[in-house]
Amino acid sequence: MFLLYEYDIFWAFLIISSAIPVLAFLISGVLSPIRKGPEKLSSYESGIEPIGDAWLQFRIRYYMFALVFVVFDVETVFLYPWAMSFDVLGVSAFIEAFIFVLILIFGLVYAWRKGALEWS
Q: 69 lies in which domain range?
């Protein structure tokens, strides 16, 4: 039987966790001083006067390098539960982990051949 009162804690947590950031932004918007001027609108770089335009275009290669790093870094975290429960799960977990690592190696070789790992 589906009873709504069993979800009271969930709804309270959802409402409170949604209200706190909204209230923080509203309070900071009301209490913060608003002063616009040339000093406020200039870009600040360690006390040195900025030279040139602040909007520089970076090559997409840097973003691709970061994305490949994040993907492989996060995917290796998934190997930890397999390693911790390997003695309980047995051979099937080893085969699954082996297939997973093969897919990661295939992705790494693909990224390497496409040049995503070249820094310059």
A: 58-119
Is residue 6 situated within a structural domain?
A: yes
**Torsion angle in degrees (nearest 10) through CA of 101, 105, 107, 111:** 150
In a domain, 21, yes or no: yes
Question: How many whole angstroms separate alpha carbon 63 and alpha carbon 47?
Answer: 28
Q: What is the pLDDT of residue 74?
A: 82
Cα–Cα distance, 95 to 98 (Å, whole number): 5
pLDDT digits (tens, 9 = 90+) for 95-109: 888 898 898 889 888
The closest alpha carbon to 97, from 89, 74, 67, belongs to 89
Say if pTM beats, i.e. exceeds, 0.85: no
Amino acid found at 13: F
Number of domains comprising the chain: 2
Burial profile 80-111: b = 16 or more Cβ within 10 angstroms, e = fewer: eeeeeeeeeeeeebeeebeeeeeebeeeeeeb
